[in-house]
Protein: Peptidyl-tRNA hydrolase
Organism: Paenisporosarcina macmurdoensis
Amino acid sequence: MKMIIGLGNPGKPYEHTRHNIGFDVIDELSKRFNSPLNQMKFKGMYTIIHRPEGKFLLVKPLTYMNLSGECIVPMMNYFDVAEEDIVVIYDDLDLAVGKLRLRQKGSAGGHNGIKSMIQHLGTQEFNRIRVGVDRPPAGMKVPDYVLSRFKSDEKPLMNEAITKSADACEVWLSSPFLEVMNRFNGA
């Protein structure tokens, strides 16, 4: 079984903010597979999807970003999902708006959701799809920036990034992540 995890914060005030791009990708996949996230376990919403390639979960931790690992690791243990069978989707300040970077391992790079994942998993080796949201403008604090919504000229780029991230997840269901990286990196 594989697990696709989108990081974000629960609740209306956080919907479609820069920090919730992982949730937006999960929503896109949920629509594609006509499978709403209507189950709860370990402080997370999820759905199980059965495909010819096998079963997989779509997951949104409801722990708030900084505690994402508290949801994911118990869920991985419960469903017997190995580290190599997860992909985590999240925002990245070091990439231009809408750019993707896929990696199989790495540090948290200052991202608190990934720090929590690394702390709870005990490893930095897990698949990731980082979605660029760019750096805040001069004078704006990072927390305020990541909790802001995209500007109108950024929305088309982000919609495309959501589509490409969801496409990458679909390809990963039947292909090694290395192949997915080669195909989607820099998209």
